Amino acid sequence: MATEALHPQAHSHGTGSAAAHPYAPRPFVVTARIQETPDTVTLRMAPKLPGDRLSFKGGQFNMVYVYGVGESAISISGDSTHPEELVHTVRAVGKVTNALAALTPGAVVGIRGPYGQGWPLDSARGRDIVVVAGGLGLPPLRPTLYEIFRHREAFGRVEIIYGARTPKDLVFAEEVRAWLQRTDLRIQITVDAAGRDWNGDVGVVTVRIPDARFEAPNTTAFVCGPEIMMKFTAQALAQRGVPTEAIWLSMERNMKCALGFCGHCQYGPSFVCKDGPCIPYKTLAPLLAVKEV
Amino acid sequence: MTANGSEAIADRVLRHPFFVDVDPTLVHAMVSKAEERSYDVGEMLVHEGKAAEEFFLVLEGKIALEIGGGDRPGITVETIEKGELLGWSWLVAPYRWRFDARAAKPTKVIALNAAAARYALAAHPAFGYHFLMKLLPVIADRLENTRVQLLDIHGH
Q1: Which three-class secondary structure state does DSSP give residue A6?
Q2: Both A229 and A281 in a single domain?
Q3: ipTM of the assembly?
Q4: DSSP symbol at A24
Q5: Looking at the complex, does the CB of residue B155 fall below 8 Å from at least one CB of chain A?
Q6: Domain of B61: which CATH number?
Q7: What count of CB pairs under 8 Å joins A to B?
Q8: Over the stretch A248-267, which tens digit does the pLDDT of each residue have?
Q9: How many Å apart are CA B132 and CA B116, to the nearest integer?
Q10: In chain B, N or C terminus with fewer CB closer than 10 Å?
Q11: The domain that contains A39 carries what CATH number?
């Protein structure tokens, strides 16, 4: 029913009174700006309204509004156990994201959310996990990685495969270096091309999957990156024997309302904002085989 | 190289994943001039345009394959590791390397003599067919990976 669907609590876990209408953004103040790569920044934010906080699940996204410029759907890249702090990692590629990336501490943005279905981490308990991130696909996976690290004993082997175009396109570089020191997981980092200052792996992420350490039938995969990267990665995982219903992809479409009303993000029978963005490959495979959907 | 050294090399070749299931007597024909080598980081294994007089089985480490030149610095387009085979330029006339290969980590390889290998493959057609059937999936994988790379899958 429309009036129920418009009720803000149906979608927002926030406590701010400003969320009286689903289209009304809640003000958040930028507290820190971290330049990740030449075109990508991480913004740390705090609620402007006293007592406000934003609880979320890894894989969910917010509609981030730059006042006077516009709104864009951005995945949450922070720690879900710290709802008092909101973290978004943004690549400057369009009007809104360029404006977001240019923000400095003290700036105020509007936030609607969180929205969508996140990564189904509970379904992965007791199983091996493989996380495959391509380019800016790592930020939407980071909250779930934090969750896996916090409950490491609840899962089997954990393998992270992270690919980017070049070494300078790798985000969270310092944090990833720290993860590399962990003995309870394995990380493979690869780039598509590199100069002589890079002595790591070179090649697309799919190349790393045959040698990844997981027991395929008992593995859950979380994959995030450009759609073409996810398509080939999912194919490689399925070829390795990971069940297609256990391979989850985070889809990206042109979100507008983020409430499942407007249809801008329709992908086949699904609205990505409401039914996704995290959707099993079993559902997506027929659509991914069609060009320009 | 001593006979014992040759046998030791043959044994290592036979344990390399690429030569699993290959008739040991035929491998011996290929390894008469083979030797084990180590490379420090940055050392070159092969140079583009030079004669491809040998090929390599990677035992340890990482090797970067580079292309480029002219007014552009070399770009690493692929890395290969333990268990993989470096090079098939020695099988394709005029037998010249089509890329540079540089050790990206301390690397150990077995270098096999190309002329001896070509002779062994030609003299034993069944072995030659078996060898090429092992090599073909490697070439096919690298072709497919190159195609995916061309899609610039991380650039969207």
Answers
A1: coil
A2: yes
A3: 0.82
A4: P
A5: yes
A6: 2.60.120.10
A7: 76
A8: 999 988 888 888 888 888 98
A9: 16
A10: N
A11: 2.40.30.10
